[in-house]
């Protein structure tokens, strides 16, 4: 069963119900990030959300199911932020810059992303894998389109997507999460962008001087 199917039959039918569900997800995100999955409880979540214990079960079958929904919700939100940033770019290199800029902004505002995804490796491996594969799918598609348009060099889009995702995640962990500065250091950001540009930018077309040198 996927992380979204477990609660499909509990979709709120009213605006009030949707607001209550959102409060539960927000509270669960905070509780899981603060005390960890194993020390979290449904009572702690409902107390944080300010709702009755019975209300929880209207929306979620149990703790594992709401954890999966928190992972899914965070995943959707970070992908949306990155996509909106990438759309500002006039070409793929600019799209990388703006997409990563939004990723680091999101992680600074929502450090729970790192803490909860790390827990998911042990609590819900299928939810963790779905998170990363969803990011990679859209990322690789964008790289493939850019490659076909000649905006980047001839790289394997899937391998490149996974590699750059890993770089961005670890840079964010070191300079956003661990430093707790609320933003990434501009020098670190530019260092990452230089690395990405060097990896993706297509080789320059040969000049007349280059052609002359090749014939001598």
Automatic annotation (TrEMBL):
Name the UniProt record assigns to this protein: TetR/AcrR family transcriptional regulator
Keyword Transcription regulation: yes
Ranges for domain HTH tetR-type: 18-78
Family annotation (PANTHER family): HTH-TYPE TRANSCRIPTIONAL REGULATOR BETI (PTHR30055:SF234), HTH-TYPE TRANSCRIPTIONAL REGULATOR RUTR (PTHR30055)
Alphabetical list of InterPro entries matching this protein: DNA-bd_HTH_TetR-type_CS, Homeodomain-like_sf, HTH-type_TetR-like_transc_reg, HTH_TetR, Tet_transcr_reg_TetR-rel_C_sf
Record has Calcium as a keyword: no
Keywords per UniProt: DNA-binding, Transcription, Transcription regulation
DNA-binding region as annotated in the record: 41-60
GO terms for MF: DNA-binding transcription factor activity; transcription cis-regulatory region binding
Pfam families: TetR_N (PF00440)
Organism domain of life: Bacteria
């Amino acid at each position: 069963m996927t992380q979204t199917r477990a609660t499909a039959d509990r979709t709120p039918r009213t605006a009030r119900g949707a607001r209550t569900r959102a409060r539960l997800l927000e509270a669960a995100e905070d509780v899981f990030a603060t005390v960890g999955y194993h020390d979290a409880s449904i009572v702690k979540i409902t107390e944080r959300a300010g709702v009755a214990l019975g209300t929880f079960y209207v929306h979620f079958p149990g703790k594992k199911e709401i954890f999966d929904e928190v992972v899914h919700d965070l995943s959707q939100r970070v992908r949306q932020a990155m996509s909106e940033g990438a759309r500002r770019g006039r070409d793929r290199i600019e799209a990388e810059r703006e997409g990563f800029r939004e990723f680091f902004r999101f992680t600074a505002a929502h450090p729970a992303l790192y803490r909860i995804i790390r827990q998911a490796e042990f609590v819900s491996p299928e939810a963790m894998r779905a998170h990363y594969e969803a990011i990679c799918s859209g990322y690789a598609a964008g790289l493939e389109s850019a490659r076909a348009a000649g905006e980047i060099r001839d790289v394997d889009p899937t391998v490149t997507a996974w590699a750059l995702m890993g770089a961005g995640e670890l840079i964010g962990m070191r300079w956003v999460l661990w430093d707790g500065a609320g933003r990434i250091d501009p020098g670190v950001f530019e260092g990452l962008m230089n690395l990405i540009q060097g990896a993706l930018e297509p080789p320059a077309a040969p000049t007349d001087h280059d052609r002359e040198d090749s014939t001598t």
